[in-house]
Amino acid sequence: MSIDIVFPGGRTKALTLSYDDGRDFDRRLVRIFNDHGLKGTFHLNAGLLNDSPVKIDLEEIAEVYAGHEISCHAFTHPFLERLPRTEVMREVWKDRETLEAYAHYPVTGMSYPYGSSDDTVVEILRACGIEYCRTTQSTRKFGIPNEFLLWHPTCHHREMLELAPNFLNYHYAPAVFYVWGHSYEFGNNGNWDDMEKFADMVAGRNDVWYVTNIDLARYIKASRALVTATDGRSAFNPSGVTVWARGANGPVPVLPGATAAL
Ligand SMILES: [Zn+2]
């Protein structure tokens, strides 16, 4: 008997939304997410927030992004691969350190400024305790990444309405729809309706898990770490996250540190 990984409650799909730069338009975006039960991740440059009247202040981030994820985007938004490596480390570490002082939890997610990186940057992120980092290379697919420090999204939000029906009709589990963008694009282009329309289409479905980037990354890593028996009838979960596995009897939660019959 084989064992599949599914999401909490036996759901087969996950939707995660990822927004960069901490602009004031994030407030409106968070309201739309909250109204529809969607979860967002917000990638912030801690060194730029309080200098700008059009960005969320550091003192506000815990409140504005409550229920969503605060994540790194480097301290001052540089092209990381063009910096001396010690400066890459400072950019990532200072961003983490400053955001954590206001978020009050480990801030270990990230997206690349300008979407750009190289092998050295990836290794420095790993050394700084970053758990995932998103690129800007759209796959237009619903797969899960091999390397979470090079997490390629499904699409920018300009393509989300086009791809949403494919996602909702998609039959291979587990499927991840990862949308990224900037909230100011909705403000500048006057197309907030697109996000409202998308949220109406995808919200409230019992086969979709609405989840932040970090919770999804941790869940998938924990799923991959599941220890399964040769006959597929049981599994041990060595991680700290409850993982759902689907064996002969359907989806079953495997609790942290426990063995479950499947
Ligand atoms: Zn950015």
Defining traits:
single chain, 262 residues, alpha/beta, 2 domains, 3-stranded antiparallel beta sheet, 9 helices, globular, binds zinc ion
Please write out the topology:
Layout lengths: L3 E3 L6 E8 L5 H11 L3 E5 L1 H4 L11 H4 L4 E4 L12 H19 L5 E3 L7 H9 L4 E3 L20 E2 L3 H9 L6 E7 L1 H7 L2 H11 L5 E3 L2 H12 L2 E2 L5 E3 L6 E5 L2 E5 L4 E3 L1
Parallel strand pairs: 2-3, 2-8, 2-9, 3-4, 5-6, 7-8
Antiparallel strand pairs: 1-12, 10-11, 11-14, 12-13
Helix pairs in contact: 1-8, 4-5, 6-8
Bound molecules: zinc ion.
Descriptive account of the structure:
With 262 residues, the chain is an alpha/beta fold. The protein has 2 domains: 12-222, Glycoside hydrolase/deacetylase (TIM Barrel); 226-261, no CATH class. It has 9 helices and 14 strands. The chain has helices spanning 26-36, 46-49, 61-64, 85-103, 119-127, 160-168, 183-189, 192-202, 213-224; strands spanning 4-6, 13-20, 40-44, 69-72, 109-111, 132-134, 155-156, 175-181, 208-210, 227-228, 234-236, 243-247, 250-254, 259-261. The strands form 4 sheets. Strands 2, 3, 4, 7, 8 and 9 form a 6-stranded parallel β-sheet that branches. Strands 1-12-13 form a 3-stranded antiparallel β-sheet. A 3-stranded antiparallel β-sheet has the order 10-11-14, with no helix packed on it. Zinc ion (ZN) binds at residues 20-21, 73, 77, 113.
The run of helices and strands is: EEHEHHEHEHEEHEHHEHEEEEE
Number of domains: 2
Total number of strands: 14
Beta-strand content estimate: 15-25%
Shape: globular
